[in-house]
Amino acid sequence: MDLAVASQGRFSADIQQVYEQWDALHRWWNNQDPSQLDGAVSFSSEELGPPVPRPRQVFCLGANYAAHAAEAKVDAPESPVIFTKFPSSLTGPASDITLVSNRVDWEAEVVVVVGRTARAVSRADAWSYVAGVTVGQDISERRLQFQGPLPQLSIAKSLPGFGPIGPVVVSVDELEDPDDLVLGCLVNGEEMQRSSTSDLIFDVPELVEYLSTMCTLYPGDLIFTGTPEGVGATRRPPRFLAAGDVLETWVEGVGRLRNTLVPNDVPVAVAPAHTDGAHS
């Protein structure tokens, strides 16, 4: 539905601006009969871009599933491990992802969309500051990630197209249990990851509480909550994405991404890896 048409201009056709009015949107929608609204349109999922196209901030969590920390042979963190993914990496649920090397890896994630300005929010109130959740992939170039003396998490995960999200944002009230969302991914139909957010070391309320004590969260900001076990770099032997691979990522009750890996004539400039290292 075209929200700008349905609301007779009360809400913007720019979905990013709608997150700034999330509470007002809920109040308006709860007083509507959808069958009486104008603006219904047909579309294909292949036409969709990212449902949060221009967030001010994108937060990511490292080693936030117990089983993933174990497979990466790292201790479970005592506090959330935060890095960022640059907004320019975001792309849609059916977009092609350009390979930049032979060390590109998958990371299925539940992505939280902030719905209200949040500062020093308590764990008990945290879900009320969330607009909804969407499906995400934290695509990672492992060689770039571990070149040099310190991990280069943000840049290795922010290359063009390395942040597919979508196809929709599902509001929290539509989730049967927002603290127990089943997620996973497949490569060419073969299951690589399957887990539940019940295995998160720091769950969504803890993350909202922690992040909002460190900085201000704004409507439309994204939180990539971490990836479960089953990434390519920790397999023996390691397995990475190749041109022509189809990567499907899903969260039960939320949706599915379907991204195809395509070759690139200009690979990213990275030094040869000395180790695959730990992974986020």
Explain this structure.
The protein is of the alpha+beta class and 280 residues long. The protein is 15% helix and 25% strand. It has helices at 3-6, 15-18, 22-29, 66-71, 142-146, 153-156, 204-214; strands at residues 58-62, 81-84, 90-91, 97-98, 104-105, 108-114, 130-137, 140-141, 163-171, 182-187, 190-196, 222-224, 246-251, 255-262. The strands form three sheets. Strands 2-1-12-6-7-9-3 form a seven-stranded mixed sheet, with no helix packed on it. A five-stranded mixed sheet has the order 4-14-13-10-11, with no helix packed on it. The chain has a two-stranded antiparallel sheet with strand order 5-8. It is globular. The two termini are 37 Å apart. The model has no long low-confidence stretch (mean pLDDT 94).
Biggest β-sheet: count, sense, barrel? 7 strands, mixed
CATH H level of the largest domain: which superfamily?
A: Fumarylacetoacetase-like, C-terminal domain
Uncertain residue segments:
none
Radius of gyration: 19 Å
Task: Count every helix, treating DSSP H or I runs of 4 or more residues as helices.
Answer: 7
**Helix fraction?**
10-25%
Please give the number of β-strands.
14
Q: In order across it, which strands form the biggest sheet? A: 2-1-12-6-7-9-3
Q: Which class of secondary structure composition applies to the elements?
A: alpha+beta
CATH class label of the largest domain: Alpha Beta
CATH architectural designation of the largest domain: Alpha-Beta Complex
Distance between the termini: 37 Å
